Amino acid sequence: MAFTSREPATGNAAVIAWRHPKPQGAQGRCIGRTDLPVDRRKAKRLAHRIRRQARLHGWPRCVHTSPLKRCADVGRCLRRWGWRHVVDARLLEVDFGRWDGLPWSAIAHAEVNAWCDDFAQHAPGGGEPLVDVLQRARAWSPRADEPGQPPLPALIVAHAGWMLARRWALTQANAPRFAAQWPAAPGHGQRWFLP
User: Strand ranges (DSSP E) for the chain?
Assistant: First the structure.
């Protein structure tokens, strides 16, 4: 399933999401909610891009991020420049339970295969099944817990799993049954327009 990220900045895009910068120490590991740092320069570089695009398109000066450093550090940069930064746990990456932070080589192949064969319902490492991530991403709204109803579009710095889940949940009728149906992740720092 291929998704395009080149949708127009106006129209149906209620959420404009950037994937966080590449975290340090993630190589070869199962990373969901493990709170890895990002290089300060990379966080600042992405914050500059977001600020520049917001000026160009007249988007609100408010950014929502997950509490994990790889997202929140970008929001903190924007906050220093006068932006509103909303930290929102509903934007967290997938919870991989006991797998989280482990090298993929340390996770039993049988466990990974069980997850891949029942991709929507199986809770990897005893964590969060995809159906729960899809529901969380589908239900997310920047207006749910905020007074003053901030203007749309909502600008967020998010995780690949959340971005994929949001797009899937709002464009596909059913959850994917097998892992092979799940699309490729956006690149670090990549921008997606989401419904």
Answer: 15-19, 62-65, 84-87, 154-158, 191-194
